[in-house]
Amino acid sequence: MGGNHIDRARLAAVCDPVRARADAVASKFGVPAHYDIEDFLARKDIDAVAVLTPSGLHPQHAIACARAGKHVVVEKPMALRLQDADDMIRACDEAGIKLFVVKQNRFNVPVVKAREALDAGRFGRLVLGTVRVRWCRDQAYYDQDSWRGTWAYDGGVLTNQASHHIDMLEWFFGDVISVHARAVTALAKIETEDTAVATLKFRNGALGIIEATTAARPTDLEGSLSILGERGTVEIAGFAVNQIRHWRFADELPSDKDVIEKFSVNPPNVYGFGHQAYYQHVVDCLTNQRAALVDGLEGRKSLELISALYESIETGQEVALRFTPRLSRLGIAS
């Protein structure tokens, strides 16, 4: 919005209690800077607010926006505790405003094409889904801000870096029955995990695998999603689930050639394509009264799954979904 890339939207103002950060963004885009959220939310020219604060602060900021009558666009994860997510959803419902949870990878062109194939039944019975996040986040990354890698404000690789991929796995394969997970803090000096693996059982009988790490060295390797079914296989890889690696179906269609040739990679010269498409979706929903692709309830689903993964890590046991966290440290100050 600040760069005028989103039709029918403009950046009205920015807010950050750290004056240098607020001033830097405000100066870059030529908009007013605020340092107090109440003053910021009192502006009459703001219709929606993008909440880009540390994850553990999302609930209080989103609820404040809702009570001020502003629509909320909150980055992933929407919260760290399920109760906080419920409070956010309730506050937005009571205020009659919309809550959008940013899951921009759903708008990646290869992901859109794979979803179209799924909706058309081309995979047949789903068998196995895998996500791999093999990224490099060194100690300097975590040392940038004191909240990074903490239980109270951030969570680990599962909550931060892999949350988009976990969301997509659940989006393609449906409800999860149970999970079993393990994690370690291999290289980073942080409270939370930098490496985790998990197996999932879906309600439809399929199995799932999550492999996530920020301990890849010396650089990022991949962020990928694999979908295996009885009639087809698709793997979307690249650094950010943005490039088709495999597109194979037993019943080939003429359009498959177009998918491989025209849609296998996000537009190469559009930085942040998924975010731009997501915000365009937000504007469309607000101006045309359409339902959000990822609303509060949809955002809560992936948070519940992530909470179950942490519960399994703490207990060493398989954890059924639709549970109440007991030992998960996510969202709790040490």
Brief descriptors of the model:
334 residues, 10 helices, eight-stranded mixed beta sheet, three-stranded parallel beta sheet, 13 strands
Explain the overall architecture.
There is one protein chain. The chain has helices spanning 19-29, 37-41, 58-67, 82-95, 109-119, 139-143, 163-173, 255-262, 273-288, 296-315; strands at 14-15, 33-34, 48-51, 71-74, 99-101, 126-134, 176-184, 195-202, 207-213, 222-229, 232-237, 243-249, 319-320. Helix 3 (58-67) runs parallel beside helix 4 (82-95), helix 4 runs antiparallel to helix 10 (296-315) and helix 7 (163-173) crosses helix 10 (296-315). The chain starts with 13 loop residues before the first strand and ends in a 14-residue tail after the last strand. The longest helix has 20 residues, at 296-315. With 334 residues, it is α/β, with parallel strands linked by helices. It has an 8-stranded mixed beta sheet with strand order 12-11-10-6-9-8-7-13. A 3-stranded parallel beta sheet has the order 3-4-5. It has a two-stranded parallel sheet with strand order 1-2. The relative contact order is 0.16. It has 10 helices and 13 strands.
Total DSSP E strands: 13
Shape: globular
Neighbour order of strands in the largest sheet: 12-11-10-6-9-8-7-13
Global mean pLDDT: 94
State the helix count.
10
- SS class: alpha/beta
**Poorly predicted parts:** none
Whole-Å distance between the termini? Answer: 37 Å
Proportion in helices: 25-40%
What percent of residues are in strands? 15-25%
Gyration radius, to the nearest Å?
20 Å
Order of helices and strands: EHEHEHEHEHEHHEEEEEEHHHE
Major sheet description: 8 strands, mixed
